[in-house]
Amino acid sequence: MACENCGAPVTAPAKYCSGACRQRAYRRRTRDVTPASGSPRLDTFVGRTAELAGLTKLLARHRIVTVVGPPGVGKTRLVQEAIAHRQHVMLVELADATRVTDLVARGPKPALLVLDGCEHVLADCAALVQRHPALRVLATSRELLNVPGEQAYRLNPLEQHDAVRLFCDRALAVDSEFDDSAELLDTVCARLDRLPLALELAARLVRVLTLEEIAARLGNRFAVLTTGPRDASPHHRSLHAAIDRSHALLTDAERAAFRTFSLLPGGIGRELADALLPQGWEMAKRLQAQSLLQGGERPKMLESVRLFAFGMLLQHDSIAVRDRLLDVLAALPEPLRTEEADNIRYAAKLVPDDDRLVVDTHESDETEDVPLSWREERLLRVAAMVAEGLTNKQIADGLHVSLRTVEADVRDLKTVLGVRSRAQIAAWATQA
């Protein structure tokens, strides 16, 4: 037998190897297990009426339900609302857990066991669920537990009108004079993928920034969306931390695919994925199962996730991946070239001086264009301002961003372009 706290060998019938382990286990139980009727939330629950009804109906019909979705989509909050008025609920918050102990075996079995944040302890959670076949379980995770009888409830970003409502609700909570009819609201919410976490973090900024200033900083969203409440778990205090939590769980091969797919905002086709990477389509399906890609036949990244992956690409093998992509796109036969038209135009914008890609302007008028992200647009603007001979300080003042941000942009430009000096950046910008 093993100690239920640290795993050290013990002799039956003892559960713990020492009094210290017994006390640690007790403290963890009192911290991690809370009744559903605990302290009420101080903020309002906005939207998700249909989702709440759908999840409630699914819980009534199935023993195991797992709410899955991308980082920051609001899985925890939906579940909190779903169990708010239920009795005999055991809630286990797994954000900081390194292993899952069998709390159910030590006391009266609850009517519903809620496992919140299972992705980093999936095996332990699956084993716990299978040890108690009569127990009803509601879990949240970036991917399924993959146990018999499990039903998935996939949570998507908010509808646009609910995203605007949520932003305004949170903004008015910190600034009663916030203009909830501002024209930029739709744009800001769409740029933030209608993700509740991103919207709430951005709304908290209205106490110090105008909506126009917030919109201008979204190209560097991971540097500004860092103002989560103190009582939130670490991965709910910043957008970067929320996505990084999922990224940290990927294998090396999955991370390489994640970085590569950041250059495909037009969606990922099977043939293109396999041409870019060994088992590329299989990698795409694995990332989709982990909620880092969305959609069906041509999955794609939410823009916030893509910008995170693009940032990872800049730190690793960006030149090799970019050149491989350009070679593959240039060699595509019809009808694949038509199918990948958005990705081809995106690559042509990203590297405008490369003659491997020839974009038909008449063709681009007939299909929806995929614009560069605000991050990438700013890199191009920084390159143009470097070519004008402006200093980093002058560029920062002109773009209304910090000097540190411009310095990082200049470093990223050198990485993307494969150059070493500002003069070479200027030469590239002038030629482009």
Structural class: alpha/beta
Average residue-wise pLDDT? 84
Question: How helical, in percent, are the residues?
Answer: 40-55%
Shape: globular
Chain-wise SSE layout:
Blueprint: H1 19-32, E1 33-34, H2 49-61, E2 64-68, H3 75-82, E3 89-93, E4 112-116, H4 122-131, E5 137-141, E6 150-154, H5 160-174, H6 185-191, H7 196-203, H8 211-217, H9 221-224, H10 239-247, H11 252-261, H12 270-276, H13 280-289, H14 303-315, H15 318-330, H16 336-339, H17 341-350, H18 361-366, H19 374-387, H20 392-399, H21 403-417, H22 422-431
Parallel strand pairs: 2-5, 2-6, 3-4, 4-5
Antiparallel strand pairs: 1-3
Brief write-up:
Helices cover 50% and strands 6% of the residues.
Key traits:
globular; alpha/beta; six-stranded mixed β-sheet; 6 strands; 22 helices; 432 residues
Explain this structure.
It is built from 22 helices and 6 strands. By secondary structure, the protein is an alpha/beta fold. The chain has a 6-stranded mixed β-sheet with strand order 1-3-4-5-2-6. Helix 4 links the parallel strand 4 (112-116) and strand 5 (137-141). The longest helix is centred in the middle third of the chain and has 15 residues, at 160-174. The protein is globular and about 75 Å long.
